[in-house]
């Protein structure tokens, strides 16, 4: 009888040894290891604070991008449709400094401008700025009625030449600032009006390559 009890006991011990042991894992709250960094706009916008972002290591913040409405930075309600994109390129202490990366018009604002019996001519061109920066500019011309294919090609060529001319006269940041605060396409209107009755010409997107 003692032998049988011992055998049963051995079996129970064997099962216990092969059964998975419950491990108590102590969870690590990663948020407690993170710091909060202030993302700052470039000097062009007086280094104003754009946002707060968490990070464990300053290196993890490098090349992080943030989008802000131009209205928030300029106070100009007419620039509400412009989204400015900044990229972190330097971190000092808890401050993350950025450089101008791109500008883009919100798609909905363009759709509202395009009505029936209106032609939209778009051009996407890679051009070089005065400081050697290579950029891609997407521009659009809105014509008050439908135009033929040859006229569309002629308008697109004028857009291409006009964008190349504006880029060659401005550094990259100066060009972006011109888009935000002014109208870099104003000089193209008269030339295009000789081909077709224009409603407006706009820069839709500028991105550094």
Short descriptors:
8 strands; 8-stranded mixed beta sheet; Tetrahydropterin Synthase, Chain A; single chain; 2 domains; alpha+beta; 209 residues; 31% helix
Q: Your description of this structure?
A:
The chain has 209 residues and is of the alpha+beta class. The protein has two domains: 33-105, no CATH class; 107-208, Band 7 domain (Tetrahydropterin Synthase, Chain A, 2-Layer Sandwich). Helices cover 31% and strands 34% of the residues. Strands 1, 2, 3, 4, 5, 6, 7 and 8 form an eight-stranded mixed beta sheet that branches. The protein is elongated.
Give a short overview.
With 209 residues, the chain is an alpha+beta fold. The chain contains six helices and eight strands; from the N terminus they run αβββαββαββαααβ. The chain has two domains: 33-105, no CATH class; 107-208, Band 7 domain (Tetrahydropterin Synthase, Chain A), CATH 3.30.479.
Note the topology.
Blueprint: H1 2-18, E1 35-40, E2 49-55, E3 65-69, H2 70-74, E4 82-92, E5 95-105, H3 107-113, E6 119-128, E7 134-143, H4 149-168, H5 172-181, H6 189-193, E8 198-208
Parallel strand pairs: 1-5
Antiparallel strand pairs: 1-2, 3-4, 4-5, 5-8, 6-7, 7-8
């Amino acid at each position: 009888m003692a032998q049988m009890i011992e055998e049963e006991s051995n079996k129970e011990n064997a099962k216990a040894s092969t059964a998975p042991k419950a491990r108590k894992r102590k969870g690590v709250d990663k948020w407690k290891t993170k710091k909060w960094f202030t993302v700052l706009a470039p000097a062009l916008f007086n280094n104003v604070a754009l946002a707060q972002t968490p990070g464990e290591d300053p290196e993890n913040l490098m090349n992080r991008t943030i989008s802000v409405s131009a209205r928030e930075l300029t106070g100009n309600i007419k620039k509400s449709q412009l989204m400015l994109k900044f990229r972190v390129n330097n971190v000092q202490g808890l401050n993350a400094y950025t450089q101008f990366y791109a500008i883009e018009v919100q798609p909905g604002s363009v759709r509202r401008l395009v009505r029936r019996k209106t032609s939209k001519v778009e051009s996407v061109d890679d051009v070089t700025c005065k400081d050697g920066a290579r950029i891609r500019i997407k521009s659009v011309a809105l014509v008050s009625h439908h135009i033929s294919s040859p006229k569309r090609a002629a308008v697109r060529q004028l857009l291409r030449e006009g964008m190349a001319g504006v880029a060659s006269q401005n550094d990259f940041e100066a060009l972006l600032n011109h888009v935000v605060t002014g109208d870099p396409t104003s000089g193209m209107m008269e030339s295009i009006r000789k081909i077709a009755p224009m409603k407006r010409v706009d820069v839709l997107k500028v991105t550094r390559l």
